[in-house]
Amino acid sequence: MKKSLIFLIPFLLLTACSDASDTSTSAEQKAPQPDAVTGDEIYSFDINTLEPGCNSDSMMICAINLSIKCTINPQFSECAENTKFMPKFVFMEDDSLQRPTSQSYKITKLKPLPDDTVEVYTQSTCNGNWFGLCNGNIIYVMKMQDGRWSVKDIYAVES
Predict the structure, then answer these.
(1) Do 90 and 71 meet the contact criterion of CB atoms below 8 Å apart?
(2) Which among 141, 32, 31, 147 has a CA at the least distance from the CA of 87?
(3) Up-side HSE of residue 96: CA atoms within 13 Å toward CB?
(4) Burial tier of 9 (Cβ tally within 10 Å: 0-12, 13-18, 19+)
(5) Who contacts 153 (Cβ-Cβ below 8 Å, separation ≥6)?
(6) What is the distance between the terminal CA atoms of the chain, rounded to a whole angstrom?
(7) What is the overall mean pLDDT for the chain?
(8) Sheet holding 102-112, edge to edge
(9) Pseudo-torsion of CA 70, 74, 77, 79, nearest 10°?
């Protein structure tokens, strides 16, 4: 019996210490990296020239652009099928909102946050008021949802 234990103990130790590589799950995936570009590029939109689609390689910029298109015109063709990718207040309809008919923005900074969101800081101008969320320093809070970036919130900060 003692001879059996002498051989069994090293065998058990070897099997207990085996390498457990590649046992990661999809829940352990790395957080998505921001893909928006900061710089001098200005994105401009006008109610009379809104076009469907996105010409940018950045999915973050495409998400921001879509939210601005829906801000300008909530009845725009792409808005109805994308309501879950923007805050609900974007689609509010009331004459007192002073919704802009044109808006421009430039990205000034990206700030990844620990909760897998990214704040995209912009310098924006518009010809309306719309909750104070289209003139000045506007921040778009982005989160990956269903494999694409979505605008989870929009807020303004003073200079």
Answers:
(1) yes
(2) 141
(3) 0
(4) exposed
(5) 87, 140, 141
(6) 81
(7) 84
(8) 42-46, 102-112, 117-126, 136-145, 148-157
(9) 60
Task: For residue 135, give the amino acid letter.
Answer: N
CA distance 10 to 2: 13
* Closest-CA residue to 41 (of 107, 87, 90): 107
- Per-residue CA distances from 68 to 13, 20, 41, 50, 120 (Å): 61, 48, 16, 10, 14
Q: What is the pLDDT of residues 10-59, one digit of tens each?
A: 444 444 554 444 443 343 345 567 887 777 899 999 999 999 999 999 99
Identify the sign of the CA torsion 147, 84, 151, 61.
positive
Distance CA 125, CA 100 (A): 10
Residue 149: its H or E element: strand 148-157
Check if the beta carbon of residue 107 is closer than 8 Å to that of residue 49: no
Query: What is the value of pTM for the model shown?
Result: 0.78
Residue count (the chain): 159
* Alpha-helix residue ranges (DSSP H) falling in 19-155: 59-72
Q: Which amino acid is at 109?
A: K
> DSSP of 119-131, one letter per residue?
EEEEEEEESS-GG
